[in-house]
Amino acid sequence: MVEEIHELMVEGAGERLDKYIASKLSSVSRSFIQKLIDDNKVTVNNRPEKAGFKLSAGDRIIISIPQIDTTALKAEPIPLEILYEDDDLLVIDKPAGLTVHPAPGHPEHTLVNAVLSHFPQLAESGGERLRPGIVHRLDKDTSGLVVVAKNREALANLSGQFKSRSVTKIYLTLVKGYLKPESGLIEASLGRDRGNRKRMAITENGKEARTRYRVLKYYQDGYTLLEVTLETGRTHQIRVHLAAIGFPVAGDITYGVKAPFLSRQFLHAHRIEFILPSTGETVAFQSELPPDLKQALEQIA
Fold first, then answer.
1. Looking at 138, 164, 190, which one is the last position of a domain?
2. Of 35, 81, 98, 158, which one has the greatest count of Cβ atoms within 10 A?
3. Torsion angle, CA of 261/264/266/269, rounded to 10 degrees?
4. What is the pTM of this model?
5. Could you tell me which of 100, 189, 206, 113 has the C-alpha nearest to residue 144?
6. Residue pLDDT, tens place only, 142-176
């Protein structure tokens, strides 16, 4: 089996082995790290150790992560709401709770597995090994529009549109607080949080990031519904930017605030506009708020 090898040199002392690895490797979950440790796929100074092993400065950690063969990607009959399909692409309205693509420790029950059931040739469409056809991503708990390419040419075309920032991406989100002025632009570079590699943070040496917002409605108990347009597409951009200006996304337990009327973050990919690779025509697709987010707004109306 092919394995991906990671080497870490410990800077400080006293942290648990599993927690330290989780802070450095954002692509894998802590539970999966613990499984790797149990399977002797992790060594400290060439010796297997327990998850709770206390590290010392200068310790050398080697992590061996078994990789999934793309030929083994499993098609699963997960229901999909397909808003548009042609020979080049699919536009899918993704529900909250569905991860976009497989990853080590999470090889199944993703959007990719669902699309493979609908379109088995997806595995040959190009892209990264575990992300065939994936042009862009949404967080697991973010609902809304996702574009998936069905062939290599379409993937290259659509990826180019995203890279050149010619794709319009509009989100709906609810934040804590009455945000004023009623429209604005947030500009702040984003990079990995040095203290927690699973989080993003505003950093001087990060990548340029711009988020434009417009107030749609103010609600009781100090909440504001926003329409947000991404001018760049950084990881967790909306959530980090809004938290940074003091108006965190409701229900976002990582950067925002808990909300008693929400079971997940109030963030929905509402509208996307791009050029069809086949015809050169500009098209736009829209997804209305799903029932759980509509119900949340009704509770604070």
1. 164
2. 158
3. -150
4. 0.77
5. 100
6. 999 999 999 989 998 999 999 899 999 999 999 99
* CA 213 – CA 185 distance, rounded (Å): 6
- What's the pLDDT tens digit per position in 242-294? 999 999 999 999 998 999 999 999 999 999 999 999 999 999 999 999 999 99
Whether the Cβ atoms of residue 252 and residue 244 lie closer than 8 Å to each other: no
The pLDDT-based confidence of 72 (bands split at 50, 70, 90) is low
Q: How far apart are CA 102 and CA 77, in angstroms?
A: 15
Backbone angles phi, psi at 30, to 5 degrees: -65, -35
Both 223 and 258 in a single domain? yes
Q: Provide the annotated active-site residues.
A: 139
Counting Cα atoms < 13 Å in the Cβ hemisphere of 162 gives 18
Distance (Å, whole) CA 37 – CA 26: 17
Average pLDDT of the chain, as a whole number = 91
For residue 158, count CB atoms less than 10 angstroms from its CB and return exposed for 0-12, middle for 13-18, buried for 19 or more: buried
**Inter-residue contact 35 to 89 (CB < 8 Å):** no
Name the residue type at position 26. S
Residue range(s) defining the domain that contains residue 43: 3-66
Across residues 194-198, what is the average pLDDT?
75
For residue 181, cis peptide bond before it (omega within 30 degrees of 0): yes
The CATH number of residue 104's host domain is 3.30.2350.10
274 located within any domain: no
Asked, for residue 278, whether it belongs to a domain, the answer is no
Q: How many domains is the chain partitioned into structurally?
A: 3
Length of the chain: 301
